[in-house]
Specification:
Elements lengths: L1 E2 L3 H7 L8 E5 L5 E5 L6 E8 L8 E9 L5 H16 L4 H10 L4 H14 L4 H14 L1 H4 L9 H9 L5 H20 L25 H12 L4 H12 L3 H5 L6 E2 L4 E4 L10 E4 L2 H11 L34 H10 L8 H13 L4 H8 L4 H13 L2 H9 L1
Parallel strand pairs: 1-2
Antiparallel strand pairs: 2-3, 3-4, 4-5, 6-7, 7-8
Helix pairs in contact: 4-5, 4-8, 5-8, 10-14, 14-15
Length: 396
């Protein structure tokens, strides 16, 4: 039977009990299908004739890709296409799979390979750095030296359970592990992904928003502690940008006469150029800073230029500031603010726009959000406060 295999077919229409080996062939990829056997789990598999034995003596070859409940259909198709290409080139994917199983590739080996692939594909440097750190801190101490084929779902659960009280980190580590074992699937190091079946943690979104009086108090503290880090914090509030976008700002990205900042795709989360209009206060701040600039192309350099390096931090290899957490923590404390992070200055900027009644498209164009759903998820409670005002304005 040859049909287009779909997720619906897998979830609802697969025969539950078969009395003999049965194949459901995919119409999209040659030699690929679902293999059903009595008393066994349904698996994605391939089947072909070995032409090295002519005529009736040709051998029927089979190779399992993995259980249908553990491997995504698109991933299984991609693996099958790759292996069919190897067949067409005269290679034997089944033999390659056996070679992989015999070889001792560890989790740490593949983590390094996945990170290199991320860099080659142009993933943001911060994304790759975070992936490496999360794997180094939370995965490799437990299973780093284990062979890929020996890692079980229980091992994955043990790692994630330790992070249950930190839902955001739990989900980041889980996503990183999934990337590693998806690469293991594609590389034929193993036939399943032990991360599938584990649950994402329910992350609670912080609703801490800085009040106008709190912002005013913070700005007074920054006035009393001038310098590059204070300017960086002030710019986060004035632009609502993500910290890493502001820290990587170059003077060539800013048109002070037009009051426009063009963020290059490589520093923007969505990997696309973002052109944003600057507030008059932000332009004034940058004009004052440009008069004091050194030789660095960055607005916030971290290259050892006098007065630009934050005490306690080494100069960043990027040439620009990478973090102000220590300084910001002291400023927040001096302003009497608790449970606040530098990123909350961006949220304060966006919430002020939303509360002012600005339409969502304008808010998105200024903050760099690309999905309305994401904006609503973070700022719905701000809009809730406008409901009575809107009702009274509409109906009197």
């Amino acid at each position: 039977m040859r049909v287009k295999i779909t997720k619906r077919l897998i979830e609802r229409d697969l025969p539950k009990d078969v009395t003999t080996e049965t194949w459901i062939w995919d119409s999209e990829v040659l030699a690929f299908g679902i293999r059903l056997r009595p008393g066994r789990r349904a698996t994605y598999a391939m089947r072909w004739k070995d032409d090295s034995f002519a005529g009736r003596n040709s051998r029927d070859r089979k190779m399992t890709i993995g259980p249908v409940e553990q491997i995504d259909l698109d991933a299984a198709r991609a693996i099958a296409k790759q292996r069919f290409g190897e067949l067409a080139a005269g290679d034997d994917p089944a033999e390659k799979q056996r070679e992989r199983k015999r070889s001792g590739v560890t989790v740490s080996d593949l983590i390094k390979e996945v990170a290199e692939t991320m860099e080659a594909k142009g993933r943001a440097a911060r994304y790759v750095r975070d992936f490496k750190q999360q794997m180094r801190d939370h995965v490799e101490p437990t299973i780093g030296t284990r062979f890929l084929r020996d890692v079980t779902a229980t091992d994955i659960d043990r790692i994630l359970t330790k992070l249950s009280r930190r839902p955001a980190l739990h989900n980041h580590v889980r996503a990183g592990l999934s990337s590693v074992f998806t690469a293991a699937l594609r590389g034929r190091y193993r036939a399943d992904n032990p991360v599938m079946g584990s649950s994402k943690a329910e992350a609670r979104h912080r609703e801490r928003l800085l009040a106008d009086t709190e912002i005013d108090g913070l700005l007074k503290v920054l006035d009393a502690n001038p310098g590059q880090n204070a300017d960086a914090m002030r710019l986060l509030w004035l632009t609502g940008s993500r910290p890493q976008e502001a820290f990587a700002m170059r003077w060539t990205d800013v048109d002070l006469e037009a009051g426009v900042w063009t963020k290059p795709a490589q520093i923007v989360k969505q990997r696309r150029t973002h052109r944003v209009t600057l507030r008059a206060e932000a332009v004034a701040l940058l004009k004052r800073m440009v008069e004091e600039r050194g030789d660095s192309p960055f607005v916030f350099p971290s290259d050892g230029v006098k007065g630009t390096r934050q005490r306690g931090y080494k100069a960043a290899k990027t040439g620009h500031l990478m973090t102000i957490k220590k300084f910001a923590g002291k400023m927040f404390e001096a302003a009497g603010l608790t449970d606040v992070r530098p990123y909350d200055l961006r949220k304060a900027f966006a919430s002020r726009l939303v509360a002012s009644g600005a339409d969502l498209r304008t808010v998105m164009s200024l903050t760099g959000h690309t999905q309305v759903a994401v904006l609503l998820k973070h700022y719905a409670h701000v809009m809730d406060g406008k409901q009575r005002e809107v009702l009274e304005k509409a109906f009197g």
